[in-house]
Amino acid sequence: MASRLECLSSLPAYTLANLSAHAETLVVDGTYITTPELVLNGWEPVANVHLLMGVMRDEAGTAITWPPTTTNFSAFILQEGFNPTLVQNAGYPVSNNGNVSLDIFNVSVRVDTDGEWRCVDQTTVLCRNLQQFVQKHILLRIQPKLRTHNG
């Protein structure tokens, strides 16, 4: 196992990130991960691993329809599978930058990232803290620094 890790460690991250095949879910190896899902009920044995999870700001951007099929935010957010009233009450304002389609798309990406990525990851961390299904759990939220044209 050590030689495999040394081999992987010697590769540039760019090479690994651009492989044609990659794991999008847990890889059940039978030693460290023994079930295809993280069992969060406390009945399964603790996996002998540390779990690192992360979500990037606007990660769900690839999952949202572009261009939006309507200029009505409520209709679009409903089409994407969310309750428009809950979304608006949760404080996701639609900006007014002069491009209605882009404004709707941008807020929809934030809603989808939070609703389908961040909330699931936070729930997993909470369950880990309650059930101790892995040794250590680290959750990252990567917020890229936004740059303006002046700097």
3D architecture notes:
It is a single chain. The protein is an alpha+beta fold and 151 residues long. It has one domain. The protein has five helices and two strands; from the N terminus they run H-H-E-H-H-H-E. Strands 1-2 form a two-stranded parallel sheet. The radius of gyration is 20 Å and the shape is globular. The C terminus is likely disordered.
Count all strands and give the number: 2
Strand order of the largest sheet: 1-2
> In which range does the helix fraction lie?
25-40%
End-to-end C-alpha gap: 46 Å
- How many domains comprise the coordinates? 1
Uncertain segments are 147-151
What is the gyration radius calculated from CA atoms? 20 Å
What shape does the CA trace take? globular
SSE sequence, one letter per element: HHEHHHE
Provide mean pLDDT, rounded.
Answer: 76
Strand content: 5-15%
Structural class, from secondary structure content? alpha+beta
The number of helical segments is: 5
Biggest β-sheet, characterized? 2 strands, parallel
Chain-wise SSE layout:
Blueprint: H1 2-10, H2 13-17, E1 47-56, H3 73-79, H4 84-89, H5 100-131, E2 134-142
Parallel strand pairs: 1-2
Short description:
This protein is α+β, with helices and mostly antiparallel strands and 151 residues long. 39% of the residues lie in helices and 13% in strands.
